[in-house]
Hints:
By secondary structure, the protein is α/β, with parallel strands linked by helices. Helices cover 39% and strands 32% of the residues.
Amino acid sequence: MTTHTPPQKLTRADQQILDDVRDAIYSIEIVRTAHMPIEIQVADGIVTIEGIVQSNPMKQSILVAAASTRNVKKVIDKLIDDTHLELAVAQSLTEAENLNDDMILVTAYKGVVTLSGRVDEEGEDALAEKIATDTPGVRSVINNLECC
């Protein structure tokens, strides 16, 4: 797990909560070994967790660990799992006009979306890449689409 905590002036109590939440999340083996980009913020006992995770079960494990931590008043969930990201990009591609997405495969890993397959016309590969890039939660796009 990669945790990034933006610079913030914390009270002693919030710093303790941050340390305890980080320890609780890091104690989950699947989270620890996955090295997912996760950001944790604490303000007045309210914990905000943001980033990308591999799956919904991983997301739920993180949220439960944070919520179970002593002195945490509330957990704000801003996590996106790769499976959800794949579905969101695929849905956006399906809804796009001027794009035949029948031969496009969408995969995601740590927020990086890969587009594979074939498009029918020039420019559809660039359009698909733009649609994927504009999808909330996507960190970057690898465009492996072939044309015509």
